[in-house]
Amino acid sequence: MSFSKGFRCLGYFRNLHYRQGVVNHRFNSSYALAYEVFGEPTEVLKKVPIQTERHVKGNHVMIKYLASPINPADINTIQGVYPVKPTSFPVIGGNEGVAEVIQVGPNVKNIKLGDKVIPSGSTTGTWTTHRVLTEKDLIVLDKNIDTMFAAQIAVNPCTAYRMMQDFVKLKEGDSIIQNGGNSAVGIYVIQLAKFWNIRSINVIRDRPDLEQTKEYLKSLGADYVLTEEEIRKRELMDKIFSDISKPKLALNCVGGQCATDCVRHLDDDGTMVTYGGMSKKPVVIPTGSFIFKNHKYVGYWQTRWNMMNFNSSQRHKMLEELTELSANKKLITPKVIQVSLDEYKEAIENMQKGFSNAKYVFKFD
Ligand SMILES: NC(=O)c1ccc[n+]([C@@H]2O[C@H](COP(=O)([O-])OP(=O)(O)OC[C@H]3O[C@@H](n4cnc5c(N)ncnc54)[C@H](OP(=O)(O)O)[C@@H]3O)[C@@H](O)[C@H]2O)c1
């Protein structure tokens, strides 16, 4: 495999002196994880040297990535089964991450050296040490934001936030049910629910470290953590519903039998939001749920919401609120396993095995 057309060796890219600012960065190498064809990430991804402009011009900004997570959607994108597809190859993997601004072009107005930024759109390629983008491709975050939280702020916390805000008017004391309770999105849902005084029932798969996982999620604010089997136990569920109300909102990232079982506990007129399909099985809804319980079924996709609200005040307000919650320790980042670009195969293989209880994040030096 050759990346000669798209990526050239970076031999001369040394001892950069920035015209505009005080930062005098020196870096010997700039690398990315990229692919030239769709396929299994461990087979098609390659770590390649890349070349970026020596001095950025106009409204361009050079950024140096600090951290970038591996999300399930990144895997699906590389496999070619995600709705957003790259239009030309080779392409750099990754969809979100946080970077530091290391050079700004003369026409850049609202971004300065040292700012912490995230990409404003999707599929920009974040598994890379450096990138040159335009000012409008970037959103500036609070400079004190925690790096690991910032690396993941654009997708999972926002998804959790919107799904709990936009579909059902939840009030204090109401309850929700979700599967994938230990997923990154699920962990943010648990913490936002706790912060907004909403009770949560969180469904996870049975696992060797079940009790530790339950305790961990409860320590974050989960009211109940149950296995997929436990939510089928009538007596147990009756006991729970003598303590909390029936959920008005169900969040589904798994599909298959587990989604159907969550629906059985949804209150009349309740809504299920499907945002993932981790079991790769379809969502099957009992007929009575539509006719007698008046349940509603909707989907949510953060990418679409971002496109509709690209530079909206609503988006900036949400990011500010989430940043503040993180700063006040009301929102803890899911457990992170930091890896280098060289460790991508092992990280992706482990992630695909499941039960990792953690998010793999590329950390750049
Ligand atoms: N629609 C949107 O806008 C949007 C936004 C963000 C995320 N998502 C989707 O939400 C899902 C979770 O994303 P994430 O970043 O939070 O993922 P994550 O942290 O990697 O967690 C993956 C979750 O899926 C569970 N899982 C994996 N395989 C499963 C299976 N066969 N059956 C049941 N559960 C299974 C895992 O449970 P174990 O620990 O038991 O393996 C874990 O809870 C993904 O499908 C992702 O694409 C969608």
From TrEMBL:
Domain Enoyl reductase (ER): 39-362
InterPro entries recorded: ADH-like_C, ADH-like_N, ER, GroES-like_sf, Mito_Enoyl-ACP_Reductase, NAD(P)-bd_dom_sf
Keywords, ordered alphabetically: Fatty acid biosynthesis, Fatty acid metabolism, Lipid biosynthesis, Lipid metabolism, Mitochondrion, NADP, Oxidoreductase, Transit peptide
Family as reported in the entry's similarity comment: Belongs to the zinc-containing alcohol dehydrogenase family. Quinone oxidoreductase subfamily.
UniProt catalytic activity: a 2,3-saturated acyl-[ACP] + NADP(+) = a (2E)-enoyl-[ACP] + NADPH + H(+)
Keyword presence, Transit peptide: yes
Protein name according to UniProt: Enoyl-[acyl-carrier-protein] reductase, mitochondrial
EC id: 1.3.1.104
PANTHER family with a match to the protein in the record: ENOYL-[ACYL-CARRIER-PROTEIN] REDUCTASE, MITOCHONDRIAL
GO cellular component: mitochondrion
A Gene Ontology molecular function term of the record: enoyl-[acyl-carrier-protein] reductase (NADPH) activity
Location(s), subcellular: Mitochondrion
Naturally occurring in which organism (per UniProt): Blomia tropicalis (Mite)
BP GO terms, sorted: fatty acid biosynthetic process
Keyword Transmembrane: no
